[in-house]
Predict the 3D structure of the following.
Amino acid sequence: MTRAAAVLAAALAASCSHHRASGPGETRSPADYYPLAVGNEWTYVDRSPALAPSGTPPERTVRILSLTADGFYRDSDRGELRADGDCLRDRSRRLLCAPLQAGRTWVSVTGVSATERYEVVATGERAETPAGTFRDCIRVRAHVRAGSKAENVLELTYAPGVGLVRLETFAVVEGKSWLQVSAELKSYTLR
């Protein structure tokens, strides 16, 4: 599995614990944008360009099945996530880190020669998906080197109290970008 595919799997993997929503003037944490709880479930519709001629877009449902002894929420795709202080992470990378403000950056070293660079590129966004319209969303962009002249770019949009609502991956080769994967939230159930 490529690193971009691993990030995609981790991002689609689990989503959502009930945390009290922030009120006016309060600062939200990564856990507020990616609640984690056993039984939470998200269904995504895959609108990837490679699937366009096939008719009805496929759907993918991810459900949190259990809590591991070391505090990770394991999902139906074998992904594992947890909120650690100021970051939401899987076993290899930090996916969303505070402070949740545009321009915030961090890196995740996922292997000996594998470094992923993350940036909060937008806050306060509105995201329209088949599951509804979400406000006050945060969009994160991740860059993963895929050779000397290529990289994979992943854009993740999180809605407060819901989790991941949109995911897009792009292949960038010598400055040209191609959309590879596009998935949007169709429905969700939070426990």
Q: What stands out?
A: Confidence is low (pLDDT under 50) at residues 1-25.
